[in-house]
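W.,

You were right to be curious about this one. When I first looked at the sequence I had no strong expectations either way, so I just let the prediction run and decided to look at it fresh. Below is the sequence, 171 residues in total, followed by the output.
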Amino acid sequence: MKRTITSRGFTLNKFLDSNGVECSLQESSLGTERAVWLGVNDANPTLNGSPVNLSGLSNFDTRMVLIDTRMHLSKKLTKKLLKCLKIFLNGKIFEAFDFVDRYNCKCSMKISDGLIEIGPDDPNPRYCHQGWKPLHYPDETKFTTHMFLNKELVDQLTPCLEYFVETGELR
């Protein structure tokens, strides 16, 4: 895991999941309570194995596209997730569960092929043009929204998340 500081002064931990997908754990700028962002950095939409050109789907600036790939986690929710991570580290199986993050994004966490699979379940693609609007895309489009974590990655993430639950900060 590579620790950096964002241009706004927030801790950002970057890592690759078990599939080589770029992920991150980042302090949130939320002003009302301490929170973190955790998940995949880029949805990498594909259609039949080829990248989807988002600008071809609508007439807008692709920099104004928002796709849910990271979970916005409060300290309370992070504490619940930590329980499952620790069960996994001890070689046991936890029951899969669904949850909603700070922005009401539906997420899930389960064990899949010996890895923890966690992330937003609906990418909810949208773009900004006089307010946020749904981004319509072909039904067969696939988005990368879940991380796949092996024990080594969970072992690296767990102390960071524990520190966040205890102090409200990342390290």
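Here's what jumped out at me. The mean pLDDT is 92. And, maybe more interesting for your project: The longest strand covers residues 106-112.

Coffee later to discuss?

I.
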